[in-house]
Design brief:
The complex is a heterodimer. Chain A contains ten helices and five strands. Chain A has a five-stranded parallel beta sheet, with helices on both faces. Helices cover about 55% and strands about 10% of the residues of chain A. Chain A starts with a helix and ends with a helix. By secondary structure, chain A is α/β, with parallel strands linked by helices. Chain A is globular. In chain A, α4 links the parallel β1 and β2. By secondary structure, chain B is mainly alpha-helical. In chain B, α2 runs parallel beside α3 and α9 crosses α12. Chain B starts with a helix and ends with a helix. Chains A and B meet through α1, α6, α7, α8 and α9 of A and α3, α4, α10, α11 and α14 of B.
């Protein structure tokens, strides 16, 4: 009887370990499992701009400051790194990445200002980082969902592609508020509307779980190293996804 | 001793459907695992195989067992005494809620003074506003401010508060109550009604919507001795239910396997998503009902596995659901804190999960031992303090 219990537990654990190992290839230092970067959504406006040789402007809208959090200089923040990565992958094209930050803004608040912003900036692609403030403030989840859909409509009206980006993983703040309903909602809204979602949360989680980055080193050097890694790898994976989707 | 007690229960309170205890015990374990965010062991739980999850199981079975426990008492002792007994249970849940709030307050204070990587400084600033214990306490007393992941507990409190009236009405008008309950679910969904939360938003589990599942469970218990469904209906359900379960399984699997997700037509995806858990989305409701139909048909009350030694702890956990439920919530809370604070590796997750389940089972065993020590012997039963209803609810 006891043997049966033990063997069932052992089998279950081994099954989970196998599945766990199968999920990710330990490889290059920015790598994430293939299912995190897979998307069959196409970025039509970006593709058209590339074909016509027009300049590609990427507008990153989020709540983090343009200078980037935790990194030593704005040049190390992921928007700047993204510009470098895209320029590398699209040689001869004029690519710029502009970062607009509205600290503390909920999705609905960002939607309020979005039309005016897009009219001024006229981007080819909008990367909309949202969900963190809504989750931490406990915004009504249906209002959050409505804001996402409204935002998507506005971006479409301004002839740009849209990519969602979700929250960061690893902060203690999410021990006080549950992020998962908002992460799930964002994921599902993007599935329902056919919009690419860049799964930053799952990626950062993967890097932490696989020891590729360490958030518990509280020295200045350790923190800086972790932040630089995260920003660099986000930029790289994001660039890969965008390039693939705009082919 | 144990055999004597169970014979007592059988003779005074009727044959106990162990399936209820088993599935509720299982639901409590799943709720615990699911409440540790990003817990890889939650892969084992129901929610990764279909739209509904352990919450649906728990709420439905709670409705069912509440009627089994108090239906007889309502007839025998009338409304007031039955309501008093139910509210006594509510009080115990409420005190658990306040205890969790106290622990949560300590955690807020801890997080507020901790210095993490400056990558997260924006998030820390937002939760800084949570650090107002004097305000939070008043809101918590009103069930408006709730610790992270604790939303099932206030839902259960509200459902039980409403239960005495619900039971009284349902014993007289089952169909009308079900109709009213469904209408409320529908209207709350469309009109966006919900209970208010602090500082903003609504309850994560909207009681106005989730009450439907509780009422369905209660209704099912009230008609449990009614004649079975027509053969034609059962045949239809045996086709429709598994088909829907299969559909749900493929869609949910597609959330992790993108190539499968591509199978879902765009138009269908557009209408399905997002699947609203807080308002008991129809997709989830139907999934649970399909699951309940299939399971209740496949697993008969006399099923052999219910008597295996490995399932007995689960059954015991289900029969002492009040204590195990409260403990499970607290353990999920603590487990999550440990994982974030120390180490999120799979091995630690496994350890926390297994330790939590072991503690929940141990609590059930202790509760069982305690209850057995206070059993009134056969022949001196006064009909007021019998072991059945207390443990069953």
């Amino acid at each position: 009887m006891r043997n049966l219990t033990l063997s069932v537990l052992a089998a279950a654990t081994m099954l989970l370990l196998v599945v766990d190992a199968g999920m990710g290839a330990a490889g290059d230092n920015c790598d994430v499992p293939q299912n995190l970067t897979y998307s069959d959504v196409e970025l039509e406006w970006v593709r058209a701009a590339l074909k016509a040789g027009k300049s590609v402007k990427v507008l990153v809208i989020g709540t983090a400051p343009a200078a980037g959090l935790g990194v030593r200089s704005p040049a190390e923040a992921y928007p700047a790194r993204l510009e470098a990565e895209l320029a590398r992958r699209w040689p001869g094209q004029n690519v710029t990445v502009v970062n607009v930050s509205w600290p503390g803004a909920t999705a609905a608040a960002m939607v309020d200002g979005m039309a005016a912003l897009l009219a001024v900036e006229r981007p080819t692609l909008v990367i909309w980082q949202t969900g963190t403030v809504d989750a931490l403030r406990g915004i009504d989840i249906n209002d959050f969902g409505d804001a996402l859909v409204n935002g998507e409509k506005i971006v479409g009206e301004h002839e740009a592609d849209l990519v969602f980006m979700n929250s960061q993983f690893g902060g203690r703040a999410f021990t006080l508020r549950d992020a998962s309903p908002y992460l799930d909602f964002l994921d599902q809204v993007s599935r329902g509307r056919g919009v690419i979602m860049f799964p930053r949360y799952a990626m950062m989680r993967y890097w932490v779980d696989n020891g590729m980055v360490n958030f518990s080193d509280n020295t200045a050097a350790g923190q800086s190293k972790a932040a630089t890694f995260v920003h660099e790898c986000i930029a790289r994976n994001l660039a890969e996804m965008l390039v693939h989707a705009a082919q | 001793m144990e055999a004597a007690v169970s014979t007592t229960r059988t003779s005074t309170t009727g044959a106990r459907d162990l399936r209820l205890d088993f599935f509720r015990g299982l639901a409590l374990i799943f709720i615990f695992l699911d409440h540790i965010p990003a817990n890889r062991l939650s892969w084992l739980t129901v929610r990764n195989f279909g739209f509904s999850d352990a919450t649906e199981i728990f709420v439905f079975i709670s409705g069912y067992t509440a009627v089994v426990a108090y239906g007889g008492a309502m007839h025998r002792f009338g409304f007031r005494r039955t309501a008093a007994r139910v509210l006594h249970r509510v009080w115990r849940l409420y005190t658990a809620h306040i205890f969790l709030f106290v622990v949560f307050t300590a955690q807020i204070a801890y997080v507020a003074q901790s210095t993490g990587n400056s990558m997260f400084s924006e998030e820390m600033k937002i939760v800084g506003f949570l650090n107002e214990p004097h305000v939070n306490l008043v809101q918590a007393l009103m069930l408006k401010f709730r610790p992270v992941n604790m939303d099932v507990l206030p839902l259960y409190i509200v459902l039980l508060i409403a239960f005495p009236v619900l039971l009284w009405v349902m014993q007289r008008r089952v169909a009308a109550t079900l109709l009213a309950s469904s209408s409320l679910w529908l209207v709350a969904n469309k009109a966006g009604w919900n209970f208010p939360a602090y500082p903003e938003g609504g309850w994560a589990f909207n009681p106005l919507c989730w009450q439907l599942l509780f009422v369905l469970g209660a209704g099912m218990a009230l008609v449990r001795s009614a004649p079975p469904l027509r053969a034609g209906v059962i045949r239809f359900l045996w086709i429709a239910a598994p088909a829907y379960l299969a559909f749900s399984f493929i869609v949910v699997l597609g959330w992790n396997v993108p190539q499968l997700a591509a199978l879902v037509p765009d138009a269908l995806a557009r209408s399905m998503y997002p699947i609203n858990k807080g308002n008991l989305d129809v997709l989830r409701l139907v999934h649970f009902l399909a699951l309940a139909f299939v399971v209740s048909r496949l697993v008969r009350p006399s099923a052999g596995f219910l008597h295996w030694r490995i399932t007995r702890p689960v059954i015991r956990a289900g029969s002492h659901s009040l204590q195990v439920f409260c403990l499970g919530i607290f353990l999920a809370f603590t487990g999550h804190f440990i994982l974030v604070e120390f180490n999120d590796a799979f091995a630690i997750q496994a350890l926390v999960s297994v330790a939590g389940i072991a503690l929940m089972i141990l609590t059930a065993e202790v509760a069982d031992w305690y209850k057995r020590g206070s059993v009134v012997p056969v022949g001196r039963s006064t009909g007021v303090e019998t072991p059945g209803p207390g443990g069953r609810l």
